[in-house]
Each structure stands twice: as C-alpha cells, then as structure tokens.
Design goal:
Rossmann fold, globular, alpha/beta, about 20% strand, about 140 residues, binds 1,3,4-trihydroxy-5-OXO-cyclohexanecarboxylic acid, five-stranded parallel beta sheet
C-alpha cells in the first residue's frame, strides 16, 4: 500500500491548547485520526510524526524517499520561515512535498511571509485549519 508521510515541526505537539483562536481546537491526535480515516478510504497508509528538532525533519524527508513514499505532507511550523536545511532536503529528494499550514501565514506577521519550504514544495495548502491536512492528502492521492 502506498505510504504518505505527514511531518510536523515545532510546537505542533501543543495543538489544541496552543493559540486555539489561530490554530483551532483539534489536537495533533485528532488530525491524525481524521487523516487515518480518509487515508483508509483512499487506499493509502499515513505515517504521522512530529518533532521540535529541525534535523529530525531533514532525516525524515530523506527517509521518505528511501522508503519510496508517495508524497510528504509537511507542516514545518516556524522552520518554514527559517530553515534552508529543510528547503535543501526537499530539493534533494524526488518525493513530492506538499507544504501545509493550519493558519494563513500571508495574513499574519511579516516574518511569516517568507517560506523556504514553499520555495521547494510541489504546492501549498494553508488557512483551512485541520482541513488543510485533508486537502493535502486528497492532492497526494492523485499523484
Ligand atoms: C504554522 C504557521 C507557522 O507560521 C507557525 O510558526 C506554526 C504553525 C501553521 O500551521 O499555521 O508553527 O505552520
């Protein structure tokens, strides 16, 4: 069965209690449950991970290619706006990467307007809360 990696960066372990007016009330486990349900319907497997450490995201992007993943859905959190290492890892693999955000960074602080992830990703889905993840999975299913 084709596998889709769903990688989450810093502070996303606190979803549900972290600034819920911006990020919503769903926890990462809630989102994982929604993704697993939809993945089952689409005939996909999802491998959902979170880390507060930049290097883990780099390692997992490499692993996604090594494991022949169909796609990576990546919410890199604040590393989106800072990490050339994550950018380069996306460029270094052939596995398509979809950038995801719960919020819409473009209508927030100016430091969120730059996305190193977005400059390397196949596409971006942002601003739809937990639905951003499900929309990205729909796109990945069609790759
Ligand atoms: C985020 C947006 C980022 O700017 C922020 O640093 C996050 C979450 C989002 O999902 O909306 O941690 O990636």
């Amino acid at each position: 069965m084709a596998i889709v990696y769903v990688l989450n960066g810093p502070n996303l372990n606190l979803l549900g209690t972290r600034e819920p007016e911006i990020y919503g009330h769903d926890t990462l486990d809630d989102i994982a449950g929604q993704l697993e349900d939809r993945a089952r319907e689409l005939g996909l497997e999802v491998d959902i991970r979170q880390s507060n450490h930049e290097g883990h995201l780099v390692d997992w992007l490499h692993e996604a290619q090594a494991h022949d993943a169909k796609a990576v859905l990546l919410n890199a959190g604040a590393f989106t706006h800072t990490s050339i290492a994550v950018h380069d890892a996306i460029k270094a693999i052939r596995t398509p990467v979809i950038e995801i955000h719960l919020s819409n960074p473009h209508i927030r602080e100016s430091f969120r307007h730059v996305s190193y992830v977005g400059r390397a990703a196949r596409g971006t889905i942002a601003g739809f809360g937990a639905l951003s993840y499900l929309l990205a999975l729909e796109a990945a299913a069609r790759f």
